[in-house]
Write a structure and sequence with these properties.
This protein has helices at residues 334-337, 373-387, 446-461, 496-499, 507-511, 513-521; strands at residues 25-26, 33-36, 54-59, 67-85, 95-102, 112-113, 133-134, 138-151, 164-169, 356-361, 397-399, 405-407, 429-434, 470-474, 487-491, 493-495. The chain has 528 residues and is α+β, with helices and mostly antiparallel strands.
């Protein structure tokens, strides 16, 4: 990683200094400081019985300017770990390794490397007071002791100032129900296993029973001629995008009224695409997916528009000449994975358009249970805010190995939220991170690849972008791959390494991107 040039830190709205008012707990002989990250703000929506996440820090002091070591040290419980230093502008090209003790078995792991692929966003968020340099976080499971060694072994002549170990306990939360964007069976265990959704029938655009002549059927009424027999549609996929509803007149009887009468006039579920409030609805979306020009200056994205339309439904009636639009893929909401919203102090920033999606991996381990995915994401949120000093979690979406999609950064899954995931290209893109390590032998599951294809096709489709096209974007910073101002021609679904000098998203996931693009292109959510 090359150091960023020096810059002046500027505070954001309501800086997070009040977080540190939480009680510090010193562990005997370790110097570990534990900080509860749930700020205790009034009105925080917490579920009774939930245990808040905590961040523990441990200073890595020493006299050797090029090396820091920590002997085996008992700590408070943690499940995710990384190292950080005082100033993000001070890049670090050294080596950091840790090993941890499993809290259940008491066994110590082998030494594991920490990656240094993370960069603060090239926006005011990255220049805010309190932003720290940091490694990528590493998920290690529930642990109660740690050993560490950090060496400046590259071009660096010394380890960074105020070097410390950051350990995150993700806490516990309870599911809140009714927090998903659309009903669809959700995978909760190993890949391939799903659980039925009790609410699946409530927003299904197709009927789930054979049509009848019941005069009390939902409006608008069927034409006076009785409907002809039609096949059982109970097995029709709920997100099928084509054809009129089967409850209409027979094919030989041309309807005298609007051909879309029937269930397709019902309001779509709340996860349906919503026009970007910064764009005139009459123009939405007209840009071709291969439009080589970025949608706006990278530093100028609308933040709060008082005239913005609500995000819980479309702003205009559907075109009766078009088939019903598919619903969005199911996305587990921040409420359902237990995001601590008291951490997020500043409102989201929005782009005019999402021109591309960058695919990432979280590194760490592939041995996690899918039931642990919410805890992993809670820990990453805490790390990105408490360690990196960002306003919110960096990625816009997460996907686990069971194919579950999770909402990332707040602001609306159907809106172009500015994230912190791909240095130099955040201002044009959305970021999807797959839980797991796909550089050191891990292979993405079929479920994960399918989920990445669907969420990228849907996200790009909201902005009229073809997931199999290319786009030319102007690099907003020196990334190790591109110089600031370069015209970078990229796939609309690219890997992190295409924009920034990193191994992310790992060799096996990166090699799967052509397959993912093809699947996204044939998805019901794709725009061609």
């Amino acid at each position: 990683m090359s150091p960023r040039k020096a810059h002046t830190r500027t505070p954001l709205h309501r800086r997070r200094t009040t977080w540190l008012a939480a009680a510090a707990v010193a562990l005997s002989g370790t110097g570990v400081t534990a900080i509860a990250v749930t700020g205790g703000a009034e009105g925080t929506d917490r579920v009774d019985g939930a245990r808040p996440a905590k961040a523990h820090t441990l200073a890595l002091d020493g006299k050797d300017p090029k090396k820091r070591t920590l002997p085996r040290t008992e700590t408070q419980s943690f499940s995710l770990v990384g190292v950080s230093w005082e100033d993000e502008a001070d890049g670090f090209e050294g080596t950091a390794q840790i090993r941890t003790r499993d809290a259940s078995s008491g066994n110590w792991t082998d030494w594991r490397d920490l990656d240094f692929d993370v960069r603060a966003p090239e926006s005011t968020e990255g220049d805010a007071t309190g932003v720290r340099g940091a490694s990528e976080p590493l998920w290690v499971g529930t642990s109660d002791a740690v050993e560490a060694r950090v060496v400046a072994d590259g071009a660096e002549t010394a380890v960074p100032e105020a070097l410390r170990l950051d350990m995150i306990d993700p806490g516990e939360t309870k599911a809140r129900g009714n927090g998903k964007s659309s009903p669809k069976p959700r995978s909760t265990g190993t890949p391939g296993e799903t659980a039925p959704s009790p609410s699946a029938s409530t927003s299904d655009p197709a009927p789930t029973q054979e049509p009848t002549q019941d005069p009390t059927a939902p409006p608008p009424p069927v034409p006076s001629a009785p409907p002809s027999p039609s096949p059982d549609v109970s097995d029709v996929p709920t997100a099928a995008p084509s054809g009129p509803a089967p409850s209409g007149p027979a094919a030989s009887e041309a309807p005298a009224e609007d051909p879309t009468t029937g269930p397709t006039d019902e309001p779509p579920p709340s996860g349906d695409p919503v026009p970007d409030p910064t764009v005139d609805p009459s123009d939405e979306p007209t840009a071709t997916p291969s439009d080589p020009a970025p949608s706006q200056d990278p530093t100028e994205g609308p933040t709060t528009d008082p005239t913005a339309e609500p995000t819980d439904g479309p702003t205009q009636a559907p075109d009766p000449t078009q088939p019903p639009a598919p619903t969005a893929p199911e996305i587990v909401s921040r409420a359902d994975w237990g995001a601590d919203e008291s951490l997020v102090l500043d409102p989201p920033t929005y782009l005019n358009k999402v021109d591309a999606v960058f695919v990432h991996h979280t590194a760490g381990t592939n041995d996690y249970a899918c039931a642990d995915s919410p805890a992993i994401i809670r820990a990453i949120l805490t790390y990105h805010v408490k360690t990196n000093g960002w306003n919110d979690i960096g990625y816009n979406f997460f996907v686990d190995k069971c194919g579950t999609v999770f909402e990332g950064r707040a602001g609306g899954v159907d809106r172009p939220v500015l994230g912190a995931h791909t240095y130099g290209f955040n201002s044009y893109s959305s970021g999807v991170s797959v839980l797991g390590d796909y550089e050191n032998g891990g292979t993405p599951t079929a479920e994960a690849k399918k989920a990445v294809a669907e969420i990228t096709a849907w996200k790009l489709g909201l902005h009229g972008v073809n997931p199999q096209a290319k786009v030319t974007l102007t690099a907003a910073a020196d990334t190790g791959v591109w110089k600031k101002g370069d015209a970078a021609t990229l796939n609309t679904i690219s890997g992190h390494r295409d924009g920034y000098a990193t191994l992310c998203p790992g060799a096996s996931l990166y090699s799967a991107l052509p397959e993912i693009r093809t699947a996204a292109g044939s998805s019901v959510y794709a725009t061609h």
